[in-house]
Amino acid sequence: MANTDANKKLVAQFWQDLYDRDFDKVGAYFAEDGHYTDVPAPGAGAYGPEQIAARLRLGLDMLSAYEHELKHIVADGDVVITEHAETWHWKTGESVTLPFVSVHEIGPDGKFTRWHDYWDFNTLMNAAPAWWLEHIAKGFTA
């Protein structure tokens, strides 16, 4: 039987590490076949610690500031759902606040097997600078 409280704490620590931009530490939360995807974005997402760290680095490393507002974390066994908002600031002055719902599934070894982010594609596309969109379109390398 899954420990719901421990899983909620694990995901809360994950968010802290992500917002500290420790991408390798964040990748280490995932099983080798763990999957991360931004559901509204094109592409298959990333699999495993190295790809996941690289994908996060691609999108977030070039932000000049990164704020996080955690609203709710709820869990049922090995599934943890977070409602939160991220405010992204680019060095050229643009910014956007993205509301998210994130779903994590945690395997029996305590590693994440799934992280799916749900957010509004148009909110990001309407705010992001063209140079950043060109940068992420090139894709990530692990």
Describe this structure in words.
It comes from Yinghuangia aomiensis. The protein has helices at residues 4-19, 23-27, 48-60, 121-127, 130-137, and strands at 30-38, 46-47, 63-76, 79-90, 95-106, 112-118. The protein has 142 residues and is α+β, with helices and mostly antiparallel strands. The protein has one domain (4-137): Nuclear Transport Factor 2, Chain: A, CATH 3.10.450. A six-stranded mixed beta sheet has the order 2-1-6-5-4-3. Strand 4 and strand 5 form a beta hairpin. 18% of the residues are buried. The mean pLDDT is 94.
List the defining traits of the structure above.
single chain; 142 residues; alpha+beta; Nuclear Transport Factor 2, Chain: A; six-stranded mixed sheet; 5 helices; 35% helix; globular
